[in-house]
Structure formats: C-alpha cells, structure tokens
Amino acid sequence: MPVRVRYTCQTCGYTSPKWLGRCPDCGEWNSLVEEVPAEGGGRPRPAAPAEVLDVSQIPVEAEPRASTGLGEFDRVLGGGIVPGSLVLIGGEPGAGKSTLVSQVAARLAAGGTRVLYVSGEESARQTRMRLERLGTLPAGLLLLAENNLEAIQQAIEAQRPALVVVDSIQAVYRPDVPSAPGSVGQVRECTGSLLTVAKGQGISILIVGHVTKEGQLAGPRVLEHLVDTVLYFEGDRHHAYRILRATKNRFGSTNEIGVFEMGPHGLVEVANPSAAFLAERPAAAPGSAVVCALEGTRPLLLEVQALVAPTHFGMPRRTAAGIDYNRLVLLLAVLEKRAGLHLAMHDVYASVTGGLTVDDPAADLGVAVAVASAFRDRAVEQQVVVIGEVGLAGEVRAVRQVQQRVREAARLGFRRAVVPRASGGEWPPGVEVLAAATVAEALAILLG
Ligand code: TYD
Ligand code: MG
Prior knowledge:
The protein is built from eleven helices and 21 strands. By secondary structure, it is an alpha/beta fold. A nine-stranded mixed β-sheet has the order 6-5-7-8-4-9-10-11-12, with helices on both faces. A seven-stranded mixed β-sheet has the order 15-16-14-13-17-20-21. The N and C termini lie far apart (about 80 Å). Thymidine-5'-diphosphate (TYD) binds near residues 96 and 262.
C-alpha cells in the first residue's frame, strides 16, 4: 500500500492531503511541509474497559503543589508545580529558558525531589557547567543527554523521578516517526508520549520549546492543546529583564507575570518591578511619561518614551517598541484631530523602556502625553503617573482598578496622578488625583 503523505503547516499545525502555497487556516505562506504518517496508523485498543465515574463520586482534593522556591515562577504557575502536569516553557533562543529550568530543577532537587534533567541540545558536561555557574550542584539532580524519546522513557521508568525537564522538545525525536526532529509531526508525537508519561505515572514534566522568528512555537496550536500550562519567557538578550507570562493554565490564572533579571549567576527574582523599571528614568526630559499597566493582579509602573522629529524626506516614519504599532498610529491621529497637534510632517518614535511589551489600554493616555511632551519639547513633571484609555473622539475612558494603580504609584512616592474623569473611589493619602475627560484636558493639566 502506498504511504499516504500529508502536508502540515509548521506554524499552526493545519494538515492537508495536498501541498498548498498558503495555509488556509493561519494564512502563512510557504509553511506546509511534507510529513509521512507513522507506520501502523491508529492507536492500540485499551486492554481493559475504561472506568466511568459518577461526577459526585469523584474525590475532591486540593491540588497538592510543589513549590519551587522561586517565588516569581510559582506565582505564574498559580502556586507551584501540580504533580502530573505538563508545562511548556516557550521563548526565543537566548531568552534564558535553560537557565530558568535549571534553577527550578536544582531548587527542587536540593529540597529532596528526585529530578531528571534531559538535555537534548547540550552535553551533560555543559549542563553541569551551567549549574556550577548558577552556584548549585545538588545531589538527586540526575542528568541525561539524550535525544531519543524511547531512551528517555526508559530512563524515566528506571529512575522514577518526580519531575522531568525536557530541554528542548525540538531536539528530541521518536524513531518510529519518520519526519525530522523539530518538525510539527515529531514535536506533536513526542509531546503526546510525554503526556502519557505525565498522566500515567503522575510525573510533572517541564518542556522547553523554542519559538520561531515570528514568535510562535513550532506547531504551537497542537502543542498548546496537549499541555496543561503554557508559559512564555519574554525579553531579549540585550536587556536584563525577563518576563514569564502564562498564556494557558489549567491550574491557575493566565494573566499573572513573573519578573526576573538575568545576572552573572542566573536569574534573580525582581521583587519590586515598578522601581526597577523606573530606575533609569531621566530627570526632566521631554518625551517621557509614566504609565501604570495591570499585569494580572499586579500593577506595574513603566516609562513610555517618545521622540518627535521633523520629517526630511517623504513619508513620516512611525516606530513603536513595546506598544502596538497600530495603537500608536491611532493615538497620533487622535492627537492631530482632537488635540490640535500637527504631527503629519513629523517622525514619531515611541517605546516602553526595559524591553517590556504593554497591551493594557490604560497606557494609551501616557503614550499620547509622551508624544505631546516630545512634540512641544516640554517635560512632564517627574512624579506624576498617567492612567487612561483613549477613545477615537479624544475622550479619556475609564479603566479597571484605577485605585490599585494609583496606590502602586503612591507606594513609589508619586505625588500626582491623572486619571479618567469617570473613575471615582478612595484615593491613597499623599497623592493629588486629577481627573481628565479628554486628551486635550490631560495635556492642559500636564503640559500647560
Ligand atoms: P540560556 O538559558 O541558555 O537561554 P535559552 O535556553 O533560552 O536559549 O541562556 C541565555 C543567556 O543568558 C546566555 O546568552 C547566557 C546568559 N546567562 C547569563 O547571563 N547568566 C547566567 O548565569 C547564565 C546561566 C546565562
Ligand atoms: Mg537552551
């Protein structure tokens, strides 16, 4: 019988019986690659009849969680690692994924947990050297440099660890799957096998996954369906700060973030991220405003910077780093039409400092203020935080949890806050809270 070839999209995992130039599911061009299905096709039949339970008969127990001792990591997971869970940690090369999982593995091993660290990319010696650099070589941390998933499964059977780290899923392969390591088929099948190990034997597994240039995991949708938790490690190698963000979590909330700083001896938790992100803020410089973005339950103060310069040739340039480009263009149009700022012949550059990405609309007003401040070459007062979403009519719209944001600013010694007119409530003492109904009003308050 001829082998039925299928084509799988490397971006989203869509499969098609024939090759297509463009994936009909995710719209990516040239992303379909040939994959030969595994021999024998179907899955084995179950040996015993499946156990069906009445929902009221299922015992309830609080999920016991293994605390890793890395507070920021535990926080993102929702309080620690749930036994038998499959956690995927994605990130760009150099983000620090191996460093993070090494630290987690070492901490748990030092606490008496049996941990197997499977390195598919580096030799056992290299992994040991990293651990030495991190200043920890606990007994009970077992290393295995292996790519063959069958050998890894045998090692798990023999060693019976409570936690397994697989670094990375793109480097391991199943010999019975004909496609190359790192292909969607291999990644999916290997993750599927690890899922069976995790659920069948109650072993927690941390899987490291590389993201592509476009910021996606190879076969992300297939992988994200299989695992319990998906964490993304953000931040580039040029910045010290790293953000760990949950995008899926079966055992907790998805919007908590963890903040780390990469140092010479590994990742250090940043206990006071707002202070850290504002540490290098220039004094009395035009084009700088402080916003407060809510990340999960945690308010974060961040500096938004803007530079406005006359356009010399042709089309004005707009660049955005850490904020959405389209959002920036929209805010510029609002400033032009509703606040009378003539930006049409000016280049505008806007960024969030510290290498962070903000998608909280509450940062809108701060971005607009930073641009206006740069345009008028007039600095915003140093100790003021700017909070509010901007609408197309130039109105400042209410945002959630304003009090909490103002409280964070007060904690860091801010004296004034500009908030949407519609927000009320009790303000912390020592902060002058000024309400603005429109962008023009906010600019009048802040820039005169
Ligand atoms: P790594 O964890 O290997 O990244 P990934 O597995 O995501 O590809 O390391 C990322 C970078 O961090 C690497 O360039 C070296 C640097 N680094 C430090 O600055 N300090 C450290 O203690 C360690 C272990 C790495
Ligand atoms: Mg690595």
